[in-house]
């Protein structure tokens, strides 16, 4: 195996993590990576999503990720130097892409025994038993979702380990024909099994890193393929983290917009004011005005809302103003008001 020496200082941090794109942990083995690509490629294939540019882009991204992570040499380079490291490796004579994203898809499915059709049947494939999914509620603050946050967790789960002895496995029902007399035959179903090494479940713990990306929505799932409960002679279930947003004391999220209520004194409402409020990441937003502010008035501040998920855009911030009126006025104060605004109508 040939490795290309690359200077890590030459590259910026990659925009999208290949492991995140395939929704597998960094320690995923070859089989996990292959199965994850299989599921995602079928889901986002352009033939299944005609006219959907987002699906087309996603298909290209996961195909690029699979091309790298399924190649031992490229994966080592990627783990150390990132996406740009792989590009330099390819430019320097390393094994590059075979000819496009559809070629990667065709190579994957062409010799695997699958027949893929997007006209009605999703796929024809022998069903493999799957373990239970594990769903975990991930409580995140609005600040976490606004800025993005990484959560370190510890996962305790069953792991399949070797055990003494043999067991029956891969059992299938087979149609058997038996002659019971001259010209008479009987057909019946018989279970046929193989002998496999015995296995057992053991509990093991391992750390899990969960990245909450900017702009993710409440209820959105972050999935780790095959990190759920295992099942003997089948595929493990998935580990799913479901985002649950903790209510904020000031800001309320509606879609990609933020809403906040600010109280100002009557004098500021009448003569104008200068005021700044702290945002979720600490930067200050100027909400002052030189004009008159009416009770319940709402003003919009563009690009001060939540980040739009997987985009460089932002929603808007809507500020609702509530006016603090004085409880009482002195006669002198009433006189000034009458003088300024005229006598009250009768």
Automatic annotation (TrEMBL):
PANTHER family: DNAJ HOMOLOG SUBFAMILY B MEMBER 11. GO terms for biological process: pattern recognition receptor signaling pathway; protein folding. It comes from the Eukaryota. Residues 17-82 form the J domain. It is found in: Endoplasmic reticulum. Keywords: Chaperone, Endoplasmic reticulum, Signal. Pfam families: DnaJ, DnaJ_C. SMART domains: DnaJ. InterPro entries: DnaJ-B11-like (IPR051736), DnaJ_C (IPR002939), DnaJ_domain (IPR001623), DnaJ_domain_CS (IPR018253), HSP40/DnaJ_pept-bd (IPR008971), J_dom_sf (IPR036869). One of its GO terms (molecular function) is unfolded protein binding. One of its GO terms (cellular component) is endoplasmic reticulum lumen. The keyword Signal applies. This is DnaJ protein ERDJ3B.
